[in-house]
Amino acid sequence: MRKQYFGQCHCGKVTYTVKADLETERNGICNCSNCTMKGFLHHHVEKARFTLLTGFDDLKLYKFGTLSAEHYFCKSCGVESFYRSRSDPDMWDINVRCLKHADTRERVDIYALTYQLGDGEHWEDFQKARHQGGIFDRAKPWHLIAPAECVPSNLDVAAEFKKTWAPDGDSPAAARRGRRTTAGSAKKRAAR
């Protein structure tokens, strides 16, 4: 069932609404360099299901490669929360990471959703197979692993983080360098 979602960039200058069924419609993860570096989680919607709430003036456009895809990002915070893809130019590709439930404004639980992998690294071959049909029907479903599932429940994250920094705020490497210098200076003084 399609639900109303609210989307935004990090700073909130770019906002939009979208009607989507994140539970049954396809969500995707692409392995191209652009999507991998951004961590973009894809969900395509028809243009009629997308409404930009803020002015177009808060967006910047980025194009690369064939210059077909239109990657829009916030000119203030740099987050790309949606774009017009090369594979489906008549649709908007929404970044699921940027969505909240419209009624509660709670973030979408990206770890509860299923994703299909898209081979953007070999885009032309992938699109050819996609248009021949059935590629998504045969695709293995993927799930993201929540960070909490990777960390022991009894781990004191704050304490572990503090261990990585010296008491004076220097990094461990800087603290070690300082100690070496001090130890080295002490040895030199003792040798004199």
What does this structure look like?
This protein is of the alpha+beta class. The chain is built from six helices and eleven strands. Strands 6-7-8-9-4-3-11 form a seven-stranded mixed sheet, with no helix packed on it. The radius of gyration is 23 Å and the shape is globular. The N and C termini lie far apart (81 Å). Residues 179-186 have low confidence and may be disordered.
List keywords for this structure.
192 residues, alpha+beta, seven-stranded mixed beta sheet, four-stranded antiparallel beta sheet, 27% helix
Number of strands: 11
Report the mean per-residue pLDDT as an integer. Answer: 81
Largest sheet: 7 strands, mixed
Number of helices: 6
Q: What structural category characterises the helix and strand content?
A: alpha+beta
Helix and strand sequence: EEEHEEEEEEEEHHHHH
N-to-C terminal Cα separation, in Å? 81 Å
How large is the share of residues in beta strands?
A: 15-25%
Order of strands across the main sheet: 6-7-8-9-4-3-11
Poorly predicted spans:
179-186
What is the CA-based Rg, rounded? 23 Å
Percentage of helical residues? 25-40%
Approximate shape: globular
Structural topology:
Layout: E1 3-8, E2 15-20, E3 28-30, H1 33-38, E4 41-46, E5 50-52, E6 59-62, E7 70-74, E8 82-84, E9 91-95, E10 99-101, E11 116-118, H2 123-132, H3 135-138, H4 147-150, H5 157-163, H6 172-191
Parallel strand pairs: 3-11
Antiparallel strand pairs: 1-2, 1-10, 2-5, 3-4, 4-9, 6-7, 7-8, 8-9
